[in-house]
Amino acid sequence: MADRTLKFLIAALALALIAGGCASTGKQAQNFAAEVAKKFEGKPAAKIPAGSKIVCAEQKETKVLICDASMPDWNKEGAVLWQWSPNSDPSIAPRHRKWFKCLSDVKPVKNAAAILVTASGGGVALVDIAKNKAVFYFHDDGNMHSASLLPDGNIVTASSDGDHICLFDIKNGCPSPESAKKTSYYLKYAHAVVWDKKREVLWAMGLEEIAAFKYVQTPNPILKKVDSIPLSGAAHNGHDLCAAQGLDLLFMTGKGLSVFDPNERKVHFAADVEKIKSISMNGEAIIVMRADESWWSPSIRQAGAGMPPVGTLKGARFYKARWLLPDTFSEN
């Protein structure tokens, strides 16, 4: 009898926890936004997990770098662990290297075994880290700022000057970069795209809205806009959209820093910090690329008192940086 009673109590507690979790998703987003705010308002920077690596888009030398987060001076030998450049990759045709001028984003994909690279010159490439080469690459006009892998391997990119996102259909055959089948969808000042595996939608962020697109794979892949959440205040003029590691939430940078709850489809203000081009989370440690000169900086900084540099490379022009971690928000 005692065993049956204990089992009943455990089951009841589990149901209560599940119900409580479902009812508190909005509260979770508010609480997380408040905790993030503290990190930018003078709270000491969090300890960086051992063995952490940061992947950076470096525009001056047109390189993607993977750096050791335990070494703050990235000029020292051994601090740069890996690098890739379209200018030295034999997979990139010489006539196409101009597509990769001003590298704009670096997203770890495929369980962090590859990097999805975009550039303002209109290039997008999937770079295999172990092979140090582009598996494939394509081009679209309009100052490309971001890309996202879809579940079937197709790609969506965001171009700010072109005011659109672009769906590349590569699964149905693409013998050359010039022959890529692509379809554009209007989004004013498009800057970021993120696939949401849980809700099976693509989130695309622009100047005045974050839009949800349903992805239809057959008979021909298309995107259908199904929702739009207006952006104002700190979230206006959206720039970076990035999953908060381990949480069902997204960071948003624009005029300031916000947190987006994709479940309730609400934006929560987090911090009044400007010129944040990218943000990324690793446990309690949050890194940002804050523009110190025009749109770049030689340093990647950490959220905390004084925003201390995690790493600095003299003369570098970093644009975006991310922790080299699997993306569990977008991928299985």
Helix fraction? 10-25%
Work out the radius of gyration: 20 Å
Question: Judging from the principal axes of the Cα atoms, what is the shape?
Answer: globular
CATH architecture: 7 Propeller
**Strands of the biggest beta sheet: in what spatial order?**
3-2-1-24
Order of helices and strands: HHEEEEEEEEEEEEEEEEEEEEEEEE
* Cα-to-Cα separation, first versus last residue: 42 Å
- CATH fold category name: Methylamine Dehydrogenase, Chain H
Oligomer: single chain
Averaged pLDDT, please? 91
The level 1 CATH classification is Mainly Beta
CATH superfamily: YVTN repeat-like/Quinoprotein amine dehydrogenase
**Number of E-type strands:** 24
Beta-strand proportion: 35-45%
Structural class: mainly beta
Low-confidence stretches: 1-23
Query: Helical element count?
Result: 2
